[in-house]
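Fig. S4 source data, part A: sequence.
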Amino acid sequence: QVQLVESGGGLVQPGESLSLSCKIFGNIFSINAMGWYRQAPGKQRELVGRFTPLGRIYYGDSAKGRATIHRDNAKSVLDLQMTNLQPEDTAVYYCRGLKDGVEYWGNGTLVTVSL
């Protein structure tokens, strides 16, 4: 069984940075393709960044150059940091993992970028 719990969302002003964390409950070493996604109001869910099978990180176009994902196996967490946030970054941010062909998603954490 895998459970993913995101935290760290809230209100952020334009130009500021955010730091989100995903706590992973379950055997972290059996979970693949871990990553962050987001869904803005009225839009489809999109990739922020995820680990590839070779262990590299692939970032989505909207996050390239601004996002950094770090996986800490000892702490069973997947962190996301993003810089220079803008109103269009307002979204619910989700953590996702894949185990034995089954997708697991957290409930998401809301990030609102506004003055």
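Fig. S4 source data, part B ends here. The mean pLDDT is 95.
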